[in-house]
């Protein structure tokens, strides 16, 4: 979950690393640091807290360093303080290393190294690797060999960048279950855990494959072990996309980008009257024979998967199971050769989702990933890929990637059902036509409701606990609304199917509790209405998301956000925005760190 970066070349490494770290900060922001190497010496600067804390060091740096590494931390082992910040030195301060991942056998290694005379400064699992390399180097005086040997001793997940006075101008790199990408420049090379770190300088990248290690200098990359052809790819992310610009927060910017994202998805996947998925990587004949689909995902992406259960109703009869990846990966499922596993992930690097996909693969099951990051581990390891085309999402709270996932799932099941002749052309045309109206209506919705939601959020931010309720397709939306609120405002919030309320959660309701209800026009409207009456009689403070034109809702509560009057399944593209904005403004009123909420990180690359 941490962000790591390395640079070697013609520019001032300190500045490049500092800028790169700022673009990686969403991966972790407990502490930060950088190490620079030149002429027999490594300079190290580490700080507890955000990257901005490195600024005085960067500004005061007069000496030119061509090579360095940097790190932004999401703490796993040891407090989030300066000592535990990366990079970590060996005993002699001749080697510095930054790590993303978890070294599971660090304790045993540390004990052995202490016996051999090594002294440790931090409580981290990562420091052990610097000492391990030092130990092997002491024996052989071969840094490359020492690095390679150290890696063979490690259990767990890792991506490393390592520099040393013994090899100035070089950065040693390795990955296992954590991403690492090399950026190729002219007379310079970059390495980082995510592409935006070096995007202003190069779009040419080489992805390290699972288990790969090597070394880079300003001119070349060399991989250790088996020979492989160096295949570079050109990525199309615009660096401008990862910049906040005039927006107060990335989250707000990304909420507002949703109409544009749906437009992009629509023009990429809908050609005339047909839906097509150019990178699906799974034959139509196989899709026609699929007997069961499993969707695996975490967090918000899991909520998108749950919504797919309802989106596919009326389109396809295919049995569908949706499960959180961390559970799925340890299940003992008897797969059949006609099963299909679909993973959903913004980052494509979520450790549990990756493990779930690997489980499917070793069982001989075909896999598709619905993912936002081209070249990510999930994309590279899955048989097929549906690109969510949301562009870089920086805010830790997922917004535009979520609605992009919903849109892709909807189009996928429309396509799937047409292949299997479960829907007829006229029906599909109607769905596509309605889907294509979403961006225009979303823009209008934002224009009409921004101030209103801001005002309502201010009024509701005084409540100490929230329930989010919905039925049918609004139930997974309720789960997502609760997740958004709790992750950025830190207010306890739970999502429930409204029918479950009487089985426990109603005990929470009193005049100090907020209840957000999604009550759109559909076959369960009356049932939902009765549930709200029950809340009202217990003085719960109701905020309703209802369909435009609903006159009765005002009898329940004056706090109503009206969604466009469309088919109920399409209303999710508007309730999602309303719930995101509501969470945003509650968090804003409470003065929270919206883009970087405490204890979280954007991509969860550890188990
Ligand atoms: O990158 P992924 O979509 O796989 O990430 C999954 C979750 O970690 C993510 O959705 C998380 O729940 C977000 N912070 C929610 O806003």
Short key terms for the protein model shown above:
607 residues, alpha/beta, Glutamine Phosphoribosylpyrophosphate, subunit 1, domain 1, Rossmann fold, 2 domains, 8-stranded antiparallel beta sheet, 6-stranded antiparallel beta sheet, binds 5-amino-5-deoxy-1-O-phosphono-D-mannitol
Question: Could you characterize the architecture of this molecule?
Answer:
The protein is an alpha/beta fold. It folds into two domains: 3-242, 4-Layer Sandwich (Glutamine Phosphoribosylpyrophosphate, subunit 1, domain 1), CATH 3.60.20.10; 250-589, Glucose-6-phosphate isomerase like protein, domain 1 (Rossmann fold). It contains 18 helices and 26 strands. The chain has an eight-stranded antiparallel beta sheet with strand order 3-2-4-1-10-9-11-14, covered by helices on one side. Helix 7 packs antiparallel against helix 15 (438-460). The mean pLDDT is 93. The chain binds 5-amino-5-deoxy-1-O-phosphono-D-mannitol. 5-amino-5-deoxy-1-O-phosphono-D-mannitol binds next to helix 9 and helix 16.
Give the secondary structure arrangement, pairings included.
Blueprint: E1 3-9, H1 13-24, E2 31-38, E3 41-48, H2 55-59, E4 67-73, E5 88-89, E6 95-103, H3 106-115, H4 127-140, H5 143-152, E7 156-164, E8 171-176, E9 181-184, E10 188-192, E11 204-207, E12 213-216, E13 221-223, E14 233-234, H6 250-256, H7 258-269, E15 270-271, E16 274-275, H8 284-289, E17 292-297, H9 299-311, E18 320-324, H10 325-328, E19 339-345, H11 351-362, E20 366-371, H12 377-381, E21 384-387, H13 400-419, H14 425-436, H15 438-460, E22 465-470, H16 474-489, E23 493-497, E24 513-519, H17 525-537, E25 541-547, E26 560-563, H18 572-589
Parallel strand pairs: 17-18, 17-19, 19-20, 20-21, 22-23, 22-24, 24-25, 25-26
Antiparallel strand pairs: 1-4, 1-10, 2-3, 2-4, 5-6, 6-7, 7-8, 8-12, 9-10, 9-11, 11-14, 12-13, 15-16
Bound molecules: 5-amino-5-deoxy-1-O-phosphono-D-mannitol.
5-amino-5-deoxy-1-O-phosphono-D-mannitol binds at residues 298-301, 345-347, 350, 353, 396-398, 483, 487, 600, 603-604.
